[in-house]
Description:
By secondary structure, this protein is an alpha/beta fold. The protein has helices spanning 9-27, 56-70, 88-97, 127-142, 150-163, and strands spanning 32-40, 45-50, 82-85, 112-114, 119-122. Helix content is 45%, strand content 16%.
Amino acid sequence: MYSIKSTSHFSVVLVLPLLLLFLQGCAGTVQYLPNPGLLTGAHADILNFSDAEIDSHAVDQLYLKVARIMGITPNSSKPRPQVLVVAPAQIHQEYLRLHHSAKAQNGIALALYVPSKNRILIPSYDRTFLAHELAHYFTFHYLSVPRSDWEAIADKVVDEERAAP
């Protein structure tokens, strides 16, 4: 546990602005809505339950980049992924429903691909989360590899996506 013990006026003056910046950051978080905004991209359908704007073109470009990294040529006969921008609690509930079949951080799922529904659940547009989950989508639909290899493949894709221009 981190705690601050102040014995001087200087440390209070230093900590107060940091605390205000932290609180301002918390106030600027994403809000989730009861009804989604629907965007149809060239390669994915996006249901945005957040108040943040999502650029369907950016999602399409990432889709193509992940496919390129994985050496996959997208086929229009495959189902289009549905990208749902939903509250973290909803992602975690779906993770629990799937009996912990996905990777989690400290037991909490941050993003999720649900193969049976062809859905990617993310809390906001984040290239790392979306690239990771798109890698799962492509692995499920285009590759014949054991489920136990999915995380390693997705992690490698994320590393390459970050390194590539």
